[in-house]
Write a structure and sequence with these properties.
It is a single chain. With about 200 residues, the protein is mostly helical. Helices cover about 70% and strands about 0% of the residues. α5 (about 120-130) runs antiparallel to α7 (about 155-185). The N and C termini lie far apart (about 80 Å).
Length: about 200
Amino acid sequence: RKAGIMYNEREVLFGKPRTDWSRIAELDSELSPYYNLWIGMDRWINSSKRWLEGDFSKLDGIEVDNTITELTKNFNQALSRFKSEGVEDAIFDMCFKYKKMVDEFKPKGELAVSLTRGLKDRHWDEIKKKTGIDCTPREGFTFQHIIDAGMIQHVEICCDVGEKAYREAKIEEQLHEIEKKWKDIFFVLTEHKLTK
């Protein structure tokens, strides 16, 4: 739309007739479910592979959660439009298939969030003690290793430990900020007249 206005302004400058861009919004509305499906499928394929097979230390649980939320919303909107417009079954089924994959991944997303919230060795030890599964990150460790170990059945424990680790990390961060602010402050103390 903004580009259309810019092109119209340039057309006027060069004495050309103005192009009618009024159908752009209508086309955008018509094509957005297909765009959401296409981009969503691509994003899902690439992201889920990176999350599962990439180095666990680089996994961003918040990004996983945000992506799942956004894809769920986009696939739901596309399905709703496809259903009301009566599109081909193959398109509807494809959208439904990917929405289902995202929905099935949600508990794993919750697990990813809880395990990427600043856990220290003591937190991994606590998880190991409570679940009997050692998922302490190490060289070559992936999120798929955690899932394959059966940690998905202990999401609640991981969420509790992850929340505790997050709160501890926030407190540590605040303490460091306070120490940093107070480090450069000097107090001048003088003896009181009654002090001997």
